[in-house]
Amino acid sequence: MNKIVKTLTIAGSDSSGGAGIQADLKTFEEYGTYGFSALTTIVTMDPDRDWHHSVYPIEASLVAEQLKTVFAGGPVDAMKTGMLGSVAITEVVKSCIEQNKQKNVVIDPVMVCKGEDEVLNPESADAIRDLLLPLATVVTPNLFEAGVLSGKGRLVNLNDMREAAKLIHNRGAANVVIKGGKALEGDKAIDLFYDGTEYVIFETEKIEPAHNHGAGCTFAAGVTGGLAQGLPVKEAVAKAKDFVTAAIRAGYAFNEYVGPVFHGGYRLNQK
Predict the structure, then answer these.
(1) CA dist., res. 81 & res. 21, Å (int)
(2) CA–CA distance from 54 to each of 3, 15, 47, 164 (Å)?
(3) Mind listing the pLDDT tens digit for each residue in 64-88?
(4) 3-state SS track over the chain
(5) Beta pairing, strands 188-194 & 199-205
(6) Model confidence band, residue 271 (pLDDT cutoffs 50, 70, 90)
(7) How far apart are CA 110 and CA 64, in angstroms?
(8) What pLDDT, in 10s, does the model give residues 181-206?
(9) Among 84, 157, 245, 256, which is most exposed with the fewest C-beta within 10 angstroms?
């Protein structure tokens, strides 16, 4: 039997299955890795209130206990964070990464739920920037998150993305991927990679209809799976871009409010 490749997600629960810890574990499985998890928040969506999101953080001490369980078998091959929910949880994650000398750390700095437009907790955003960016092998913000982490505010074009990526890299992240996705004008879904030396653009044709709920989580989980399997960072990002594009293409309309990606799309497309 081949060596078991281990991955970890520290993230919130999305009961609709498209994003969060559910998306991460599905993606880890598609990458052929064994997924561990530590739950940080529970998110519910109310169909009687236009799919309004409610977020319920887990106690930081319970997150620490979950991580103690996970690392009882030693460091994992790669890990990612998603929605953390509080400064205290972010501090627990930082300590865990440092104490276990964890390598291949992907920080997905989740600050808003799709369909919502307010930062879940501004203090948590600051904690991610100050505590986790210096530990990140890769950080994967979307346009909004990159604007917050860089201090640039709203990003509207590729030049803005380049400037923000450099500022985020200067805060300690070894590699930065800004997910432009479908948010930029034009017919291309554009993501920008920066490693402190070169900028690389990854782009695909925009997909309509865009069933893209969970795309950001799935992309970051794909990068994590690629790193765990030994891919160099840029190759892990390239594969994750292909993986999430296939997942969007295979997505479906769950209801009138949301259309999640389908995490098996890449595998099914290979057949």
Answers:
(1) 9
(2) 40, 12, 12, 30
(3) 999 999 999 999 999 999 999 899 9
(4) CCCCCEEEEEEEEECCCCCHHHHHHHHHHHCCCEEEEEEEEEEEEEHHHCCEEEEEECCHHHHHHHHHHHHHHCCCCEEEECCCCCHHHHHHHHHHHHHCCCCCEEECCCCCCCCCCCCCCHHHHHHHHHHHHHHCCEECCEHHHHHHHHCCCCCCCHHHHHHHHHHHHHCCCCCEEEEEECCCCCCEEEEEEECCCCEEEEEEECCCCCCCECHHHHHHHHHHHHHHCCCCHHHHHHHHHHHHHHHHHCCCCCCCCCCECCCCHHHHHHC
(5) antiparallel
(6) low
(7) 19
(8) 878 888 999 999 999 999 999 999 99
(9) 256
Would you state the structure tokens that stand for residue 6, as one six-digit string? 């281990």
Take residue 35 and report the two structure tokens written for it.
């997924």
